Amino acid sequence: MRTLVIHSLGEFVDRVTPSEPDPITGRRRDTGVYRGSSNAKNPLFTSLDRLGGIHPPHTKADLEEHILRNYIRYSRPHLRSDPINDWEQLVSAQHHGVPTRLLDWTYSPLIAAFFATRTLPAGSAERDRALWRLDWKSLHEKFDFPGLSLLIKDLEELFGKDGHFTPWKLMRRGAQRDFACLLEPPSMDERIVAQAAVFTLCSDKTRPFDAFLDDHGLGGALTKFVIPAEEVGRLRDQLDLVGVDERRLFPDLDGVAAAIRRYYG
User: Fold this and answer.
1) Rounded-to-integer distance, Cα 148 and Cα 264, Å
2) How far apart are CA 34 and CA 113, in angstroms?
3) CA torsion angle for 227, 232, 238, 239 (degrees, to 10)?
4) DSSP 3-state assignment of 19?
5) What is the pLDDT of residues 136-171, one digit of tens each?
6) What pTM does this model have?
7) What letter does residue 94 receive in the DSSP assignment?
8) CA-to-CA distance for 84 and 217, rounded, in angstroms?
9) Tens digit of pLDDT for each residue in 186-198?
10) In what order do the strands lie in the sheet containing 33-37?
């Protein structure tokens, strides 16, 4: 894994912009996905890893099935439409903050920078933040997946050859082989669309995602960009300049209120 220090939004964008245009499209478009972290010291923990604390992590990973069952039970009155299957329920749960083995990413480096530089709780000392870039195509090549981000329906086709593949089967029996893949969520609401959201799904829930990749020779698929504590405010102000804020990424009244509260705070 490479670790680079960045001091401004412009420097970050320059570093993730390909130096040469794609020979087919002629465009300089990055194919990685990004994740922002408010603490540069933390590994890539899922929300399930963090449940119960991170010293040590993974202490409540065995509750995964119970957590999803309760979400399915109590969420139904609030859903806009019926999920097509239990994988979509898992994605919905993660999207709304329920602890799962999924890890949030975005196609936009600027949106990841927004999440990396969010205001810390009152009384917290400022600290270094991190932006992670994942070369997900390396994962798919390693684990023999297509060179496309997977849709929910693709999971059944790729894993269901010996029977119906569901989250329950993965939770109870584990996977027949180790894997990690990029999962494209359906556009269930405006927030998923606004945040260019995507997830990684991993067969292992006993290791941080970066450790899992290292153990499979995929450490090079990750790049970690560190934002020094003294530069966090600078990047946050630069994100405001280019219109990346709560109002755009949380397109509802709560997002409007959050943007106003932070901007004038």
Assistant:
1) 42
2) 9
3) 80
4) coil
5) 999 999 999 999 999 988 988 888 666 678 899 899
6) 0.94
7) H
8) 35
9) 998 999 999 999 9
10) 2-5, 222-227, 129-134, 33-37, 103-106, 197-202, 180-183
Q: Is the dihedral of CA 26, 28, 32, 33 positive or negative?
A: negative
Residues 218-245, mean pLDDT to the nearest whole number:
98
Of 57, 32, 36, the closest CA to residue 47 belongs to 57
Residue 112: both structure tokens together: 């990841």
d(CA 21, CA 265): 42
Separation CA 141–CA 147 (nearest Å): 7
- For 43, 53, 209, 219, 245, the CA distances from 215, given in Å and listed in that order, are 14, 23, 10, 8, 36
| Torsion 192-197-203-208 (CA) sign | negative
Cα 23 to Cα 14, 20, 26, 29, 170: the distances in Å are: 20, 9, 6, 11, 39
Measured distance CA(148)–CA(44) in Å, rounded: 23
Cα 235 from Cα 120, distance rounded (Å): 15
